[in-house]
Design goal:
Strand content: 5-15%
Distance between the termini: 14 Å
Number of domains: 2
Number of strands: 6
Largest sheet: 6 strands, parallel
CATH architecture of the largest domain: 3-Layer(aba) Sandwich
Length: about 220
């Protein structure tokens, strides 16, 4: 295994226990607009960007008039009703602190916008440890397309063999695979091991990754 020099993290479900809250916010916003919403279907799509989730879950495009209205209301509902109570995944701060202290470059690659990313990192308690970020604002297509992972790779400026990604959904795994990046999956986002097939390793959460730090990231440089 090559020495790891940079780690690219997903945020929702990986660093922050927020996947269910995103799904509930979609349902609440859709209900307010008189749109039929299936929580279970939406929950399974969390991890994709709105450009893919809204057409699959609701049957209209994100950039349609109704899609824009739903997207905006969902963001407001999430920020107001759910964000203040969200908690980091177990071990998030401890894992990222150790990686940072050992000299690794830390980045995030998210299907959300930059405006959405900032408060999520604040709730996760790691905004001061993240050096680079790639968001929906940087790319044309969200996960499971590899665009946002490739954008993060271009920012960390490390050989791809020395970069790993950490994510919690099959969309993270697929995006990483298409970008040629090794990925560790975590179960704390709610996905099963079968759904996370293709990941190099599957861990319970960031705390579990910390327990297996040397085997995952190699000894300190």
């Amino acid at each position: 295994m090559s020495q790891v020099h940079a780690v690219i993290f997903d945020i929702d479900g990986t660093l922050l226990l927020s996947n269910g809250a995103h799904a509930r916010a979609y349902v609440e916003a859709a209900t307010a607009l008189g749109i039929k919403a299936d929580f279970a279907k939406i929950r399974c799509l969390i991890g994709k960007g709105g450009d893919k989730l809204i057409p699959e879950a609701f049957g209209f495009e994100q950039d349609s008039e109704l899609g824009k209205e739903l997207d905006q209301l969902k963001r407001e509902v999430f920020k107001t009703h759910y964000l203040p109570a969200l908690q980091p995944a177990p071990g998030t701060r401890s894992l990222l602190s150790r990686l940072h202290d050992n000299g690794l470059t830390l980045a995030v690659a998210t299907s959300g916008s930059k405006a959405d990313m900032v408060p999520l990192l604040e709730r996760a308690g790691v905004q001061d440890l993240i050096v680079e970020s790639a968001t929906a604002d940087d790319v044309d297509a969200s996960k499971p397309e590899p665009d946002v992972v490739q954008a993060a790779l271009s920012k960390v400026k490390c050989p791809i063999s020395s970069v790993v990604m950490v994510g919690d959904t099959p969309y993270d795994v697929e995006a990483a695979q298409h970008a040629g990046v090794r990925i560790f999956a975590v179960r704390c986002g709610g996905c099963t091991d079968d759904q996370l097939q293709g990941a190099a390793e599957i861990y319970e959460n960031p705390a579990d990754l910390l327990v297996h730090y040397d085997e995952a990231f190699g000894p300190p440089r």
